[in-house]
């Protein structure tokens, strides 16, 4: 247990961790509320997918710039303004819903705002964590960061769903509560130390993005990690976008159950996070990552065949554990392999997988309307599992080659950073 929470003994990291707790608590609630509103306004899976598509496209465009900003600007400043945007979006949506002025296009605007905030918040937060704890505890810090996110998912989606279904409070009230919690994150971020960027030399941002891509491409193991994560998250994680359709459309349950199912994955994540935090910097990290990624894809396939809402709840608990293990370890391996001056951009490329998740939601929603939601979920899980199998085959082949030519983690040629 002492090893599992070692990073939290660093005071500055502890402040960053609490800032993440409040931020993720707010954001998780908003994800559920946006899905509920999209389903209530349209009752179509494709509409749910469109909300996530806009989120994904925004992240796709903005995340590479978020990585550059994290490398070239003070990370506290980046976190602060990103959180301000999350706060303002929550307040605006709460007021609009309370005033009964909500329209579907407004959900798309809210998705753009949150996607833009995530694009800058994510790389800056992970890069700042690596600064505060150092390379030796990087895996522990990343796992605890995910624990802060998944811990809030144990109750935040359920509370948001319950409040949305409570006539006295409603979706608008739930949004305003989310805004208040987001403000608490702002307070914590303002307590963080101000540290200048490692290299604040102004450069063309497009050249910076290109340098980051060249850097990742020059390290074969890092390139494989980034590409595999993209496919696993883009397809496998999309099950969350269709939870409202699964719960309300197939199992005929209400908004409260939408929140409860979303909470189920967080329960599995929290169960896994504590032992994982003690192992994340160990020699078996890659093996655990591969096993958890494969398990993630398989259990998403099983979710598509769940006979009852209670079976779905249990399956999603298991999915949550596999997801957390895969995300924690893939990010740890990627950032450990990267130079400090490039970590923001490497993390931004890893985070692009969530842009892919949002982009794939719309075509997957259209596919679900053609072949059925259950079949579409089986397809999602199958693609994620196949990506892990391909990754392992490539790693095995690379290991065989490296016996003769070591140094897979070194760039094949000099790269400007």
Characterise the protein shown here.
- The protein is built from 15 helices and no strands.
- The chain is an all-alpha fold and 417 residues long.
- The chain has one domain (8-190, 207-402): MFS general substrate transporter like domains (Growth Hormone, Chain: A), CATH 1.20.1250.
- It starts with 10 loop residues before the first helix and ends in a 15-residue tail after the last helix.
- The model is unreliable at 408-417 (pLDDT under 50).
Question: What is the structure about, briefly put?
Answer:
The protein is 79% helix and 0% strand. It has 417 residues and is mainly α. It has one domain: Growth Hormone, Chain: A, CATH 1.20.1250.20.
Structural class: mainly alpha
Fourth-level CATH superfamily: MFS general substrate transporter like domains
What is the rounded Rg? 20 Å
| Low-pLDDT segments, ≥5 res | 408-417
Architecture (CATH level 2) name: Up-down Bundle
| Helix fraction bin | over 70%
User: What is CATH's topology name?
Assistant: Growth Hormone, Chain: A
Structural domains: how many = 1
Strand residue content: under 5%
SSE string, helices as H and strands as E: HHHHHHHHHHHHHHH
Report the count of strand segments: 0
Q: Which characteristics define this entry?
A:
417 residues, mainly alpha, Growth Hormone, Chain: A, 15 helices, 79% helix, globular, disordered C terminus
